[in-house]
Amino acid sequence: SHSLQSISVTVLAESSDELNHPRDLAFHPERTNELWLVNRGDESLTVLFDPGTDDFRSENFASMGNNHFLAQPASIAFSDNGNFATVHETDDFTQGPPPMGSPEDFMGPTLWSSDPDIVDGGHGGHLDMLHNSPNGMGVAWEEANTFWVLDGYHNSISRYGFHGDHGPGGADHSDGE
């Protein structure tokens, strides 16, 4: 009937479940009992396991470096290999002020593993990062480690190929496209 009276709302999680201004969510493509969220409020990831069931629990991932690798996350998208990418709605200095820190246009999409033994929301758990698309608003998966980004800084839609990742915590971004 398209009326307010016909709407039913069920709350699955709230701040006590480690949500802090969530911005986007995505179900894991293989483990469909996992709902992954990016939190803008504390620059973290939260996974809801078995939402809506008696077995529900949540786990939060945030660690050293999340203010850069997960800075003000706006969107999340999974690939079919279990990796996922996040984009970030910020153009702030994320590694300290200049001249030693990164410039404000340094942000870009980050590639992560969804393996709970690897992902940590920070430097040690990221698989790759490409730069120059700050103020990202959305991300969508295409193939392998290739994602499309809604780039608010350049007012464009940009295609990012991470190709072979550098492994957890690495720094070699040279094969990125």
Number of helices: 1
Counting DSSP E segments of at least 2 residues, the number of strands comes to 11
Helix percent reads under 10%
Secondary structure class reads: mainly beta
- What is the overall silhouette? globular
Major sheet size, sense and barrel closure? 4 strands, antiparallel
Numbering strands along the chain, what is their spatial order in the largest sheet? Answer: 1-2-3-4
Q: How far apart are the first and last residues' alpha carbons, in Å?
A: 48 Å
Task: Tell me briefly what this model is.
Helix content is 2%, strand content 36%. It is mostly beta strands.
How would you characterize the overall build of this protein?
The radius of gyration is 16 Å and the shape is globular. It has one helix and eleven strands. The mean pLDDT is 89. It is mainly β. The strands form three sheets. The chain has a four-stranded antiparallel beta sheet with strand order 1-2-3-4, with no helix packed on it. It has a four-stranded antiparallel beta sheet with strand order 5-6-7-8, with no helix packed on it. A three-stranded antiparallel beta sheet has the order 9-10-11, with no helix packed on it.
List keywords for this structure.
mainly beta; single chain; four-stranded antiparallel sheet; 177 residues; globular
Write the layout of secondary structure elements.
Layout: E1 22-27, E2 34-39, E3 44-49, E4 57-61, H1 66-69, E5 73-78, E6 83-88, E7 110-113, E8 126-129, E9 136-143, E10 146-151, E11 156-161
Antiparallel strand pairs: 1-2, 2-3, 3-4, 5-6, 6-7, 7-8, 9-10, 10-11
